């Protein structure tokens, strides 16, 4: 007789245990053991040891099969299994990582954890195919709307696949924080009314709770030109600005218009040639219908253009704003030399447009929706012991649940977009469609995006500087993992599971748009490294960039109004403070905005920072060493960023590895 020692680990969450019966059999190259019952009582956090006897040596172990069945008259009870370890009669350790919920009366095959691209074992190939088919029945695609990425086929939180749902801790803290903030705003004396604010100071009633040092500074600096320009580089959406070498024909700014703003260098065309002029163009908003009504009041949207100049002190300053795409008498170009309130209102209009593009394009589409596609395709096309699955799974955690919540409560009919955003009630779908048509692979890869926008040398660009460090660290880690498992370009080309994964992302996520430059297949090791780096960076660091600072920069509503209640001005010299107050969102809408951005930029409990991998999917020593090296590099980057933040105008907190979440989970 041969004796195998089996260790089974149950998850530590309060509900992870079960009173169902768990049985096991071991599958090896030389056969398999008989089904053996282990126990019918599994406590949370418990690691249990058992013995399994076989008549002969099973050879190299390939997998274990778990059976979950009700015990006597007990009810069906889901169980979270972390891993199973098996020690052979000769003392060799085999590890079978799982880290997932098992529900129903079922059997589940767990492959041995040693990574392989595609096993030559006929049994293993068939088992991998069965595993993927089972997951495809759980992870089904749905077309949410024409021209946008596909999503998970579910309409309710309790329909989200069990292994994608929030933990009890995360869900509880998520709901508590929302309710608590709503109550807190009300206790601060913010009336629930659709009326205008009496003055800007009254905004403090909606703003001054759970303030941050940065939000305080934003409320103080928001109307300064230097801070307006600063936000294009280091605000919550550093994705719009680009160097301008030639003025667009539909933006007829002359040297005489901006001479007073250019200091000693009064020649605009010279500054263009010297690379000191930048453009923020919101043409994507042209033709997008405005929300017809918020609180019974008509809303307005426009597609402004803003020209900025880098002055000799390396400040980025706005020097001209046109509030539409078509020049003419009804489209004056606003200048810093105009009256205070004319210039202030023009900047507010730009900030409102920035809010729409940031939230819809660079936050929702470029992180949440693409991360969802990566999640679904990974589960549908890659088996659990595939190295790319093991590399990506920490970066897909909770994404399907948060996106399902967003579809129900933010972007659905009657959600936050309809209640507070100018692109609600009709504008949201066409804006997403236009954004999809503009997606480019290079724009999803930080180094190429920075170069394409001409921002390689612009000073004081913390998103670029910190982001490059993170990108390089992720790229180095990915390269080590990939080159460990893929020894040649041929091994990449001939991995059918990998190629099916890439093809499905191209079809369902990027809608087979060849203009996007998104690959539909991968032919080389470097191409795979770049693609996986893009996926991980987008699901972690890039989401932190466009999400974590929302309350810092939008908590003070005039710095990013979610909508505007008056049409953009068509003449100069008539704007007053009251004009601005009447144009800004009303009191009730402001409260919705402030509560929403607070919750979305404050992670609830159950966080996993970038590089934190408590679930041990890679069982081999070499990949585990790569993980430790990655974590050490991230710690070094964190130290560097914190040191640099001591001398920055405002600390740039959003790419500190300690605060970047591994996945899109909020």
Descriptive overview:
This protein is α+β, with helices and mostly antiparallel strands and 666 residues long. It has a domain at 2-112: PLAT/LH2 domain (Lipoxygenase-1), CATH 2.60.60.20. It contains 21 helices and 16 strands. The protein has helices at 122-138, 168-187, 204-207, 213-221, 225-234, 255-258, 268-273, 340-381, 387-392, 399-409, 416-420, 428-438, 446-452, 462-485, 489-493, 496-509, 525-547, 550-554, 577-583, 587-600, 621-645, and strands at residues 2-10, 21-28, 31-32, 36-39, 47-54, 61-69, 79-87, 93-102, 106-111, 141-142, 151-152, 242-243, 277-281, 305-310, 316-322, 333-334. The strands form four sheets. Strands 2, 3, 4, 6 and 9 form a five-stranded antiparallel sheet that branches. A five-stranded antiparallel sheet has the order 12-13-14-15-16. Strands 5-1-7-8 form a four-stranded antiparallel sheet, with no helix packed on it. Strand 10 and strand 11 form a beta hairpin. Helix 2 runs antiparallel to helix 20 (587-600) and helix 14 (462-485) runs antiparallel to helix 21. The model has no long low-confidence stretch (mean pLDDT 93).
């Amino acid at each position: 007789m041969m004796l195998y020692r089996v260790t089974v680990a149950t998850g530590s969450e309060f509900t992870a245990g079960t009173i169902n019966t768990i049985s096991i059999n071991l599958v090896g190259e030389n056969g398999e053991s008989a089904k053996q019952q282990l126990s019918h009582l599994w406590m949370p956090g418990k690691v249990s040891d058992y013995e399994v006897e076989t008549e002969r040596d099973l050879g190299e172990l390939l997998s274990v099969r778990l059976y979950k069945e009700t015990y006597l008259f007990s009810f069906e009870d889901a169980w979270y299994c972390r891993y199973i370890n098996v020690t052979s009669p000769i003392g060799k350790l085999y590890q079978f990582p799982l880290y997932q919920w098992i529900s129903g009366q079922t059997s589940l095959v767990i492959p041995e954890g040693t990574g392989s691209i595609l096993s030559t074992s006929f049994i293993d190939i068939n088992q991998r195919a069965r595993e993927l088919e089972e997951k495809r029945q759980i992870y089904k695609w749905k077309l949410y709307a024409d021209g946008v990425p596909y999503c998970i086929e579910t309409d309710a939180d309790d329909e989200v696949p069990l292994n994608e749902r929030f933990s009890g801790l995360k869900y509880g803290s998520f709901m508590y924080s929302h309710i608590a903030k709503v109550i807190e705003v009300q206790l601060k004396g913010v009336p629930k009314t659709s009326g205008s604010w009496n003055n800007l100071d009254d905004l403090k009633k909606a703003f001054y709770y759970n303030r941050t040092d940065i939000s305080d500074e934003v409320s103080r600096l928001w109307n300064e030109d230097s801070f307006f320009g600063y936000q294009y580089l280091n605000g919550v959406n550093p994705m719009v600005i680009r160097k301008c070498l030639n003025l667009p024909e539909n933006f007829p700014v002359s040297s005489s218009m901006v001479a007073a703003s250019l200091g000693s260098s009064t020649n605009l065309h010279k500054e263009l040639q010297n690379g000191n002029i930048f453009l923020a163009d919101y043409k994507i908003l042209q033709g997008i219908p405005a929300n017809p009504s918020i609180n019974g009041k008509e809303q307005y949207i426009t597609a402004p253009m803003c020209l900025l100049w880098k002055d000799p002190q390396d400040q980025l300053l706005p020097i001209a704003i046109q509030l539409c795409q078509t020049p003419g008498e009804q489209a004056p170009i606003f200048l810093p030399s105009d009256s205070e309130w004319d210039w202030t209102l023009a900047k507010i209009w730009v900030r409102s447009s920035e809010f729409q593009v940031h939230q819809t394009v660079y936050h929702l589409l470029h992180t949440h929706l693409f991360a969802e596609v990566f999640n679904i395709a990974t589960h549908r096309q890659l088996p659990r012991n595939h190295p790319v699955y093991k590399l990506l799974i920490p970066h897909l955690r909770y994404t399907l649940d948060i996106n399902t919540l967003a579809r129900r409560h933010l972007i659905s009919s009657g959600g936050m977009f309809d209640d507070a955003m100018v692109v609600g009630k009709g504008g949201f779908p066409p804006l997403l469609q236009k954004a999809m048509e503009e997606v480019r692979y290079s724009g999803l890869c930080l180094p190429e995006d920075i170069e394409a926008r001409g921002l390689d040398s612009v000073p004081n660009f913390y998103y670029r500087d910190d982001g490059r460090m993170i990108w390089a660290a992720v790229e180095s880690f990915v390269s080590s993992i990939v080159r460990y498992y893929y020894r040649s370009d041929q091994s990449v080309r001939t991995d059918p599971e990998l190629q099916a994964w890439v093809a499905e992302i191209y079809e369902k996520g990027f809608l087979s748009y060849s203009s996007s430059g998104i690959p539909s297949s991968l032919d080389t090791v470097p191409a795979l490294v770049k693609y996986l780096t893009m996926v991980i960076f987008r699901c972690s660091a890039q989401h932190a960039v466009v999400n974590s600072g929302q309350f810092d920069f939008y908590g003070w509503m005039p710095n990013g109004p979610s909508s505007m209640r008056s049409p953009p001005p068509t003449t100069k010299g008539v704007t007053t403070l009251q004009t601005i107050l009447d144009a800004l969102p009303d009191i009730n809408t402001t409260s919705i905005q402030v509560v929403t951005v607070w919750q979305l930029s404050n992670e609830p409990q159950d966080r996993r920072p970038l590089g934190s991998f408590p679930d041990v999917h890679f069982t081999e020593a070499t990949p585990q060493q790569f993980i430790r090296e990655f974590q050490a590099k991230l710690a070094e980057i964190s130290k560097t960023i914190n040191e640099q933040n001591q001398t920055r105008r405002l600390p740039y907190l959003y790419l500190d590895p300690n605060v970047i979440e591994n996945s899109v989970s909020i």
